[in-house]
Every structure is written in structure tokens, then in C-alpha cells.
Amino acid sequence: MSIEIFILLLTIIFLITALYLEIFHPAAVFFIAVSVLVITGILSPSQALAGFSNEQIATIILLLLVSNLIQKVGVVNYYFSKVLKDNLSYRAFLGKMFLMVSSLSSFLNNTPIVAMLIPYVYQWGKKKKISPSRLLIPLSYAAILGGTITLIGTSTNLLVSGLAVQQGLQPLGIFDFSLVGIPATIAGFIYMFFWGYKLLPDRKDVLETFLERKKEYLVETIVRKDSPLIGKSIKEAELRNLKGLFLIEIIRGSKKISPVSPEEILEENDILIFAGQTESITELLSTKTGLSLPQFCTIDGEKVDVVEVVISNNSSLINKKVRDTDFRAKFDAAILAVHRNGEKLRGKIGEIVLKPGDLLLLLTGKDFWKRAEDTTDFYIVSRVREIFNIDLKKGNLVFLSFLGVIILSALGFISLFTGLLILIAGFVIFRFTSYSEIKKGLDISLIIIAALSLAIGTAMHVTGTADLLAGMVEGVLSPLGIIGALIGIYLFTNVLTEFITNIAAASIAFPVAVSLAESFSVEPTAFILAVAFGASASFVTPIGYQTNLMVYGVGNYRFKDFIKVGLPLSFIYAIICISLLYFLFLQEV
């Protein structure tokens, strides 16, 4: 093993570990990894930066811009509300939602689709007294499956196409995925509609109300200097018997008091940490107890709303302490409370380090809704966009124009990149959008990750690491021949994607797939597509795919819920994908 391969393998181990443990922001992890490869001479600066000029990466950017515009004009929300009526039964809603979401996700990036539809699904469940946990995993799975049907359904497919171009191969076409993606999606629908829904958890408390009111938040309050509570014990202040709230800790200077005795005497400036329900928290603060929020949790102005949001996968808030987010200045909102599924949060709100998928309870000012439209840092959960403000003509024109570009590209009249470029230019000229809105819609983190992931793939190719790993896979599965190699590369990619980002999994597995195809002297298409499908098929963990992470906290799921529901689907999906790839591309070999 050469020193270059050794350094690269250590770098990949760092990449996988740092992404899994969330040591740094994902974009920072890729930046560090590629920097090491440049400093050690494994990659030249031009090789490291080549991804930023890759047409497929540029296409990802343009697709995200168009998806953001379609999200803002609200046409998807409008038709979703028309199709999914309140009078539908649970199974009817589940079926229609699955089919609609998977269809939309085959042409629009699946992450914005889920962001748009979470509030509708959430509110529909509330109206029908159905727990969100019965609805949100199917929403995420439908988006994932639909995204695998075409080249443009997910950024992973476009990245794989970009990696192909990077290695001198032909880019993948829009519908090159469809012969496998459509049957796999249909199988996923059949599984979820007839069996999978039975495995979904139902955690609603029939004695109380719906699941969303049971999520445990952490909220911090301060005993003001004029509070009538000063000098009273916890028992006398009646803070032990609050409906839906539990006093878990008192912070007095540098001293932490936990558990809290009923006889503990309250003092001025004591910080009281409560855990409890959304409505109970707001009631606590509205009573005349002399309790107030910390300075960073207050909002100026007469009218405020309490809103739930979930932190996105590429949010700039990730790994920041609440007090360092400058949330009020950016969004005219304050972080009132934090809910992190499966963890008991302790200590001051301001000291909590935010993570992807965290559910935040916000106290919002009058400018919040306008500012929230222009951010990808979080997705709103608890309020549906008002549909009466939607310009339906404009929305239809935007969406139909986008479909027109896809059709023209599929027929070979124009490249997808050129068509999207013309489309966005037209939107700016006719004032459907503006330069400032385009700039706000750019997901810089995703761009960096996608571009630098190509550099990782290049390093694996030029150092011979891909050949080394391919030889190991072939050696283990050699008794099964070429079908064994196909199974091996799919499983290698799929296991990676369940624990790190799908883009990282694809960038690591792709060079190995090409080397495997070369070792069998076959066209690499089947192996390349195996990487694309394996990287997208994240059903078993909530952390492998951004849409799973988005619904994780909102649905109050546990890690085991994804294993229970997703593992059978993962097996079904793998069998269909591998079988079809073999029969379509390798049977004659």
C-alpha cells in the first residue's frame, strides 16, 4: 500500500467519522478532507476545484433555484390541498399522499417537497385525530423513492452523473433511472399501503390529546427582581403542580440544583428550567408569576406568535449555541424552547448546541414570516401557508415552464443546464423572481459538499484506492461472479448512506463501482446506477437522508421506528434494484 493510499484512507475514515458524529458542519468536514489531500500533494488545486465547474453540479444549483421558486409561488401547496381533502380516510390519505409526493419528487428536488408538505400532513393529522407518527415516515419515504425515478429527482443522482463526467464517461440521461426507479417506487408504495403502515408507531395519548402536544421541550425562565415568588418554596409557589410542565433544574449562579426539592426556597435571578408541552409553556409565561424569558428569548412588539420549526440538514445554525445564533436579529424570532428526540436536554437554553432535526419553539415577531420565506436554515412545521394569497396563474406558468424544459431536454433538443439557465433568466426578466431572491435561495453548503465530493472521487481514482477497494469487494464476493460484485457495491453504498450523507456515500463508492466494472470488462452503467440507488435508499436510519431527519423530531419518532418500518422496505428495494440492473444491463455478459 502506497503512502498516498494510506493518507487517503485515513482521510476517508475522518470524513465518515466526522459526518457521523457531527463534529463539524458537513461542508466544513469536506473542506478539511480536501484541504488535507491538496496539502499532501494527492490532489492538485485544479483537481480539488474541478467540481465547481462541473456541469452536473451547476445543474444541481439551478434545479434548487427553480424548486425554491416553485415552493414560493405555492402552486404545489394549492393542488396538494385540493387533492388531499379533510374527508379522506387514513388509508386513502396515505395512498394519495404517497403517489402525489413520489410523482412530484421525480421532477422536483425531494427536500423542498417534504418541507412544503410537512405542515399539511401535520395539520391533516390534527384535524382527523391521527398521530403525526402515522403519517410522516411515509411522506419521507415517498419523497426518497420518487427522487430515484429521474436524474433530477435528487441531488445524489446528479452528483453521480457529475462523477461519471469527471472520469471521462458519458453523463446520465434524465430517464436513465426510470426503468429501475419506477418499479422500485411502485413496490415501495405497495409495501407501505398494504403492510408498512401497520408498523408505524402511534404514540398519541387517548386520555389527553394529539401527539404534538406531548413533545417535551426545554424552556428557561428567570425569577425577576420584583417576582412574588422570591422567598417562597417550590411547594408554596405551586411550581410542582403545573399542568403539563415539570421543573427539572434550578441554576443559581454557578450552582445547579437537580432534582429540585419541594422545600427549595426561590431567590432573585434564579434560572428555572422546565420541560413540558407547547401550550403549557406559553401559559406559564402569560401568568403573573414574575417569571420571564432570558434576554435572548424576548421579542419586541405587541403581537407575537408561537411557531414550531425543524432545523434543516445544511442549516447555518448547526453546532452553534442558542445564544450565539443571533436569532432575533436574523429572523425577528426568539428560541423559546428546544426538543431533541430521544435526549433529555439539561441546562440553560442559551448553552444548548443545535443539531440537525432539532425542533424549536419560537416566539415570533411581525417580520418573522417574511424573513422565514428566504431561509433554508429551518422548515416551518406548525402552520400551513395561507393558500388564498397564491397567484395560481403565475404558479401554473412557472411549473409548466419547468416541465417544458425537462421534456425538451429529454428529447435532446436542449441540454438540461442550458434549458434551466434560460428558464431562470426568463423568470428574472418577467419579474417572477429577482436577483436578491436567487441569491437567498442558494444553498452554499450543498454546493460546497457536492463540488468537493467530486474531488474525493478523483483522489480515489488517481491514487488507486478505488482499485484496491474494488479488489477487496471482488475477492469477498467472487464466488457469485458479476452479480456478487453488483450486490457488493450496492450494499457498500447503502450501508455508508445510512450513517453519513448520501452525497458522501456516493462520492466514496462511485470510483469503486467503476473499478469493479473495469475488472469484469463490462459497461459501467449498471454499477454506476447501483451507487445512485444505494445512496438514495436510506430507509433504516433517520440520519442518512435529509428528509428522514426533517420528520424525525416532528413525528416524535425513535431511532428504532425507522429500523422497524424501513428495514423490510430496504430489502424489497435492494432486491428489485439489483435484479433489474442485472437483467437490463448485465444478463448478456
Explain this structure:
- The protein is an alpha+beta fold.
- The chain has helices spanning 3-21, 26-39, 45-49, 55-73, 75-83, 90-105, 110-127, 136-147, 155-166, 178-194, 278-286, 327-331, 368-372, 392-410, 416-429, 435-441, 444-463, 465-477, 481-499, 502-519, 525-536, 546-554, 559-586; strands at 217-223, 245-252, 255-257, 271-276, 291-292, 305-311, 333-339, 359-364, 378-380.
- It has 23 helices and 9 strands.
- Strands 1, 2, 3, 4, 5, 6, 7, 8 and 9 form a 9-stranded antiparallel β-sheet that branches.
- The model is unreliable at 205-214 (pLDDT under 50).
Blueprint of the fold:
Layout lengths: L2 H19 L4 H14 L5 H5 L5 H19 L1 H9 L6 H16 L4 H18 L8 H12 L7 H12 L11 H17 L22 E7 L21 E8 L2 E3 L13 E6 L1 H9 L4 E2 L12 E7 L15 H5 L1 E7 L19 E6 L3 H5 L5 E3 L11 H19 L5 H14 L5 H7 L2 H20 L1 H13 L3 H19 L2 H18 L5 H12 L9 H9 L4 H28 L3
Antiparallel strand pairs: 1-4, 1-5, 1-7, 2-3, 2-4, 6-8, 6-9, 7-8
Keywords:
589 residues; alpha+beta; nine-stranded antiparallel beta sheet; 54% helix
Strand segment count: 9
Which residue ranges are poorly predicted, with pLDDT under 50 across at least 5 consecutive positions?
Answer: 205-214
**Count of DSSP H/I helices:** 23
Compute the separation of the termini in Å. 32 Å
Taken from the alpha-carbon principal axes, the silhouette is globular
Strand residue percentage: 5-15%
Q: Whole-number radius of gyration?
A: 25 Å
As a percent range, the share of helical residues equals 40-55%
Mean pLDDT: 83
Query: What structural class do you assign from the helix and strand content?
Result: alpha+beta
